Amino acid sequence: MTYDFTPLFRTAIGFDRLARLADAAPQDAASYPPYNIEKTGEESYRLTLAVAGFSAEDIELTVKDNALVVAGRVAEEAAPEFLHRGIAARAFTRRFVLADHMVVEGADIANGLLHVTVRRVVPESAKPRRVTINTLANGAKTINAPAELPKAA
Q: What is this structure's pTM?
């Protein structure tokens, strides 16, 4: 399915990444390992992945360019002879796109579940600020920005 984002781009600036995300969404059809995304507060979330058979040493979390990548690989040991293998301990890579100002605060693993805590932290420089408008003697207006803008974090 293809979406036409042209009407959105007429009035919005910087949302071209949205179109790329929509185009890439159907390609991410992987279903292993299963996961949940919970909203735990106004600006906080928890990602939970079912990683039975994996230890903390077998899982790698990486955050880069607004993406959280969770990869798991079980160390190869002397493989026992299985009569039935129903627990999938195969290697995986899951990629999650993070919105702007999202920070991965930490991760825990217990009882076969990996919990990743994510929170939105908006820096002061990105918060709305009031700009004063001065009036000149001849009626023209000038807009004065602060002498020094806050530095980005």
A: 0.65
